[in-house]
Amino acid sequence: MPDPRFFEDLGPVSIDDLAKLTGSQLAPGSDGARQIRAVAILSRAEVGCVTFLSDPRRADELAGTKASACFVHPRQAQDVPKACVGLITPSPQAAYAVAAGALHRPRRNTSDSLVSPTARLEPDVRIEPGAVIGDGAHIGARTTIGAGAVIGPGVTIGRDCDIGACAVVGFAVIGDRVRIYAGAMIGEAGFGATVGATGLIDIPQLGRVILQDGVTVGAGACLDRGAFEDTIVGENTKIDNMVQIAHNVRIGRNCAIAAQTGISGSVVIGDGVQFGGRAGVADHVIIGEGARIAGAAGIMRDVPAGETWGGYPARPIKKWMREVAWLSKMAARRGDGAGA
User: Fold this and answer.
1) Taking CA atoms, which of 20, 114, 198, 327 is between 20 and 30 Å from 275?
2) Which of these three, 79, 106, 133, is where a domain ends?
3) What average pLDDT does the segment 192-209 reach?
4) What is the domain count for the chain?
5) Co-location of 58 and 175 in the same domain
6) Lateral strand order in the sheet of 49-53
7) Quick check: is 189 in a domain?
8) Are 220 and 240 spatial neighbours (Cβ–Cβ below 8 Å)?
9) Phi and psi of 325, rounded to 5°?
10) Which one of 73, 104, 247, 284 is the catalytic residue?
11) pLDDT digits (tens, 9 = 90+) for 17-63
């Protein structure tokens, strides 16, 4: 279930109504009156949830689901277990996105005051001019909220934190001693879209951002909330200015990420990993504990723990440097020959 501090539940909705809304067909003999209260990804679905299957390789996972309903392609209709109602559609993920929008929506601030009367402020909180504190937010003792910063509804910020001017923090749970510098964006919707009947549609992003104790986030950095899982940054990790961290990313403790690095969705990064500036990481990659990524490297596959990689596409740095040296020598020889 999406965190109720950040998302309103709009359901329940009957399976019949979901079928009409999404243009899906119920499997023969299905109970369309059954009520659906939430969406969930396949691995998290419980009774009362609707999920989806878009990858045939996960059919075994569908067989064990507790979900009450599942959007599936006609080719996978026979894989839906008897306890689950099949909603048959050529675009299961798009139907899921529509259902998510019908069942959940982000909470918005309802107060006309800059500081909501329902916000909880512990002793010695400092709020600078123009800052906004949303409904139900909780700000820990001795924390400073900078001028023009916006703290969204339900956000929890720990003690001894410093939120910079014009930073925006939403859909987030933040530990103690966290520093978020000016203009950083924490908890915006991740970049998730799928193809629907009329073109691309956004997939509602129903997860959170969790920053553990001692994290630093640089000016202008963007950390997207998860699509359904959380985006997590481990204790004492330091993120430089203008870094992009996409949805569902999990970063370990004591990592260092230099400016303009971009990390795609669902990447897993171990403890103590270091990134040079302008490094890029493809989605679903795993980077092992203590690895080092050179500046401007393009990581397209998993990096083993403790290794140093560079280049594009990235490979172990000694291999990359040998290849660059060889290429330089070959280019010099061809140049000498051309001038002879």
Assistant:
1) 327
2) 106
3) 92
4) 2
5) no
6) 25-26, 85-88, 69-72, 49-53, 38-39
7) yes
8) no
9) -65, -45
10) 247
11) 999 999 999 999 899 999 999 999 998 999 999 999 988 888 888 99
Q: What are phi and psi of 168, to 5 degrees?
A: -125, 125
* CATH number of the domain residue 248 falls in: 2.160.10.10
Average pLDDT, the chain: 95
Q: What is the 3-state secondary structure (H, E, C) of the chain?
A: CCCCCCEEECCCEEHHHHHHHHCCEECCCCCCCCEECEECCCCCCCCCEEEEECCHHHHHHHHCCCCCEEEECHHHHHHCCCCCEEEECCCHHHHHHHHHHHHEEECCCCCCCCECCCCEECCCCEECCCCEECCCCEECCCCEECCCCEECCCCEECCCCEECCCCEECCEEECCCCEECCCCEEEECCCCEEEECCEEEECCCCCCEEECCCCEECCCCEEECCCCCCEEECCCCEECCCCEECCCCEECCCCEECCCCEECCCCEECCCCEECCCCEECCCCEECCCCEECCCCEECCCECCCCEEECCCCEEHHHHHHHHHHHHHHHHHHHHHHHC
Q: Which residues span the domain enclosing 176? A: 167-318
The pLDDT score that the predictor gives to residue 56 is: 87
Give the relative orientation of helices 92-103 and 15-22 as an angle to the nearest 10 degrees: 120
Residue 306 sits in the same domain as residue 179:
yes
- Whether residue 338 is predicted with pLDDT greater than 80 in this model: the reply is no
Q: Which residue has the tokens 């280049």?
A: 311
Predicted TM-score (pTM) of this structure: 0.93
73 is catalytic: no
For residues 18 and 98, what is the distance between their CA atoms, to the nearest angstrom? Answer: 9
Do residues 100 and 199 share a domain?
Answer: no
67 vs 56: CA distance, rounded Å: 17
